[in-house]
Here is the input.
Amino acid sequence: MGFLPDVLRRTSAVKHVVFELRRQLALALRTVRDGTSGLRRRMVERRNAESGRADNFPSQVTIEQPILPTEFVAAKIHNIELARRQIQNLPIPPNAIFSFWHLVGRPTPTNGFQRGRSLLGGKLRADYGGGLCQLSGIIYHASLVAGLRIRERHPHSCDIYDDSTRYTPLGADATVAYGFKDLRVENSLNAPICYRVVLSEDRIACSVCATRPIAPCLIEFASISPPASAGVVETRRQRPGETRFEVLSVSRYQKHNRS
Here is the structure.
């Protein structure tokens, strides 16, 4: 009677070990690439920030989103709050790079994170740090409007929302998976900036703050010939004073199978 459950448990354990080995390899490769390219030296560090140094930076660009009620909404808010503390009002000098995972750290129970809803392998599952993608996504969207340079961003593999549940435009997301997928933004402005996140039970807002005014860019998330089973979105940015749109990325999504 216990043979099949034992086999399933062992198979699951082997898959977990293989996945962790893949993660460690990916982390090692990132470390080498960041070191040899010089990116590592440009990444903002929490320990080097002076407390309160950017608290008074005026808000220049703000994006707001609702937090939708789900089975895991309490864990989502908890996880976002933990991550928010690591990036809040952290000064980012010109040419410095904001790396989400470098600042937030690995989302484990030891680090205080809870199981929340995550999209893993095209399926919705409970995983530690679930919900953090809304934080990384709103930071990405605010960075686009502020005219910052996006060094790394990944779309989700599937579109799990419809018109009644979508809280942000398709294409404005930025999924993060520790070791594999990061959000990295370069401060390409001529003044220091910081991110300021305000969180409540049903809303989240992210501001790009700076000592100098930031003229917001016009952002378009344009659907381009989406087939019935997928969505293709072109992200375009028009800077103030310019007439043309710059194509920043093309995101492709499979439709999520809810059955």
Residues 37 and 234 are 28 Å apart (CA to CA).
